[in-house]
Amino acid sequence: MKAFVVDKYKKMGTLRLADMPAPELRDDDVLVEIHATSVNPLDSKVRDGEFKLFLPYRPPFILGHDVAGIVTRVGPRVSRFKVGDQVYARPRDHRVGTFAEFIAINEADVALKPKNLSMEEAGSIPLVGLTAWQVLVETARLKPGQKVFIQAGSGGVGIFAIQLAKHLGATVATTTSTKNVELVKSLGADVVIDYKKQDFEKILSGYDLVINSQDKKTLDKSLGVLKPGGLVISISGPPDPEFAKRLGLNLFLRLVIRLLSRSVRKKAKSLGIRYSFLLMRAQGQQLSAIASLIESGVIRPVVDQVFPFEKTGDALAYVETGRASGKVVVTMKR
Question: Where in the numbering of this chain does the Enoyl reductase (ER) domain appear (predicted)?
Answer without folding.
Answer: 13-330
